[in-house]
Each structure stands twice: as structure tokens, then as C-alpha cells.
Amino acid sequence: HTRPVIFSGMQPSSDSLHLGNYIGALSQWTQMQSSFDAFFCVVNLHAITVPQDPAELAERTRRTAAQYIAAGIDPAQSTLFVQSHVPAHTELAWVLNTLAGFGEASRMTQFKDKSQRQGADAASVGLFTYPMLMAADILLYQADSVPVGEDQRQHVELTRDLALRFNHRFGETFTVPEAQIQKGTAKIYDLQDPASKMSKSAESEAGLVKVLDAPSVTRKKIMRAVTDADAEIRFDRDAKPGVSNLLTIYSVLTGRMVESIESEYDGRGYGDLKKGLAEVVEETFAPVRERTNELLDDRAELDRLLAAAADRANDVAGRTLARVYDAMGL
Ligand code: ADP
Ligand code: NA
């Protein structure tokens, strides 16, 4: 390869991506795609580790892919594909399941969190083996780095351990990937609960800004965002988490320094800041929403793009899997 390889993905577990996904993942990916040989995956096999409605899953998979493209992932430049279109993911995951220790897998904090939330008996074995599928996703493309949030660090560590173990036992086969933890990337918080990160798993959607929502819905959510009583527009993450979150979003979406926004709104009320922010968000999301809807109106074209990407992904992944099987005597 001439360019380093990156792999990243998101689950199709919602009708619309949210502002956190957009700022923390999607907009980062679009900036990276010209410097890397990038594989961006809609990880639908990960989504079924918790119960899914089949029709809804199919729809959400298309919508997620459409939003990637609409936000700027160029299917001619990056390989944007759906995980289940590439059988090597599940095949390599099985191999990695046989290499991973039960104790090692049991230490994954995401499994502990998610299984606790569902109740130990309700949690699937798939939820337990999820990290080995994620390792397969990454290793099949010989990824050099994996842009992920802090919460995925442990899974990437496991991926590295499995790659090193395989290479040691069966001969050099995998690139050992680095986690590229998005340090400079702003974390976006829930508008109603600025102590918690904005997440599709939030109990209420009142503080969740969605890319595909109607502008009036988003505007209402922003106007109702939690602030505080002292009416001062100043960034202070600890003392003024609500206002600081609004300023962060404003700053990231406009590329302006927080200080410059603070001085623009100096002496004005929270209502003005919120109105301004609602406009900024709408300017950002309007083109993404329009393009997503165009893509969803032409299903055949979207499916064709995804099929072409799956061909490329199958080609690369299939070559890695063949080396793995060969090395193991399979
Ligand atoms: P959610 O928390 O809504 O389930 P995911 O865990 O599926 O989101 O995250 C998908 C991607 O979006 C990851 O790369 C993650 O780091 C990023 N992301 C999610 N929520 C936020 C947030 N509130 N702020 C910044 N980035 C986020
Ligand atoms: Na999540």
C-alpha cells in the first residue's frame, strides 16, 4: 500500500445519526479519507448482538450508509460497505474466538456494562464474542490504525493481542493496528443532561440532536437545552456544563474559537446563543439531510454503490482469510 489503512465503523442501530456521531466520528472520517486507504463499515452483524426488528434493521443499514455518503464519505475514494456483505468477517471472528481466552474476553468492560443492563440471562453469547468480531473487522483489512473513541480502547488492545498471538503461533499474517483515540475530538453531551454524553441509548430523546430530524424539531430541542441561572455566556465545563456544551457544538461546527463566540454573545442572553446555534446546526445538517433523502429515493443506486464496495472489501478480506486458513492448516 502507499497510504496507511484505517478501519472504522458504526452500528445501524438508529434511524438517524446524532450530533455526537457526526462530530465525533463522521466529520473526522471525511477529513481522513484522502490521507488513508479507508474502510468505513456499517457494522450490522454487531447490531444483532441485541434484538433487532428485521425490516427496521435493513432500513437502518441503508440509512446509515446514506448518511455516511451524505456527510462526505466519497464512495469512489473510500470503501464504504456493509459488514454482512463480507462473509470473511464472521469466518475470521470464529478463528479469533478460538484464540481468545475466556478470561480475557470476560474482562471486557463493555460486555460487563451491556450485559448488566440487559440482565445476565438475556445477554446473548454474541454480545460476549462481539470483541472478537470487531478484531476480525480490523485485521481483515490489515489496518494500521483504528480511529475510535476512548470507550473502544480496550477492544483495540484485545485486537492487538490477538494479532500478535496469531502471528507468533502461525507466522506473520496480520498488521498489528494502533488505536487512534480521537484526542482533540470534542465530546458532545446530552442537551438535557450535560453530565452524560449525547447517545442514542439515552432514556429520553429530548436532549438528542439528530441529523435527519426536521429543522423545527432540532430547533425546539436546542431552545430547550439545559443551561443555568446566572445568564452568563462563558465556557466552564465544571460550573456551566450546559452552556459549555452549546459553545463546544457552536465552535466545532463553525470552526471558530470558543473565545470568539463568547465575545460575539457578550452581554446577550442564552436565548440568543441558542437561536444562533440552531442556525449553525441547520446550516450543517440541511445539505446532509437533503443528500441522504436523495440517496434513499434511489435505492437501486445506493445498493449498487454498496455492492461495488462489498466487492472491493471481499477481495481484500478474502485474501487475508486465505492466508489465515493456509497458515492454520484449514
Ligand atoms: P451512541 O453512544 O449513540 O450509541 P456509538 O457508541 O454508536 O454512539 O458511537 C458511534 C461513534 O460516534 C463512535 O465513534 C463514537 O466515538 C462517536 N460518538 C458517539 N457519541 C458521541 C458523543 N456524544 N460525542 C462525540 N462522539 C460521539
Ligand atoms: Na453506544
UniProtKB/TrEMBL annotation:
Assigned EC number: 6.1.1.2
Protein name: Tryptophan--tRNA ligase
SUPFAM superfamilies for this protein: Nucleotidylyl transferase (SSF52374)
Similarity comment text for this entry: Belongs to the class-I aminoacyl-tRNA synthetase family.
GO CC, any one term: cytosol
CDD domains: TrpRS_core
Compartment annotation: Cytoplasm
Reaction(s) catalysed (UniProt annotation): tRNA(Trp) + L-tryptophan + ATP = L-tryptophyl-tRNA(Trp) + AMP + diphosphate + H(+)
Gene encoding the protein: trpS
Stated role: Catalyzes the attachment of tryptophan to tRNA(Trp).
Subunit details: Homodimer.
Principal subcellular localization: cytoplasm
NCBIfam families: trpS
Keyword tags: Aminoacyl-tRNA synthetase, ATP-binding, Cytoplasm, Ligase, Nucleotide-binding, Protein biosynthesis
Gene3D superfamilies linked: HUPs, Tyrosyl-Transfer RNA Synthetase
EC main group: ligase
Binding-site list for L-tryptophan: D137
GO terms, molecular function: ATP binding; tryptophan-tRNA ligase activity
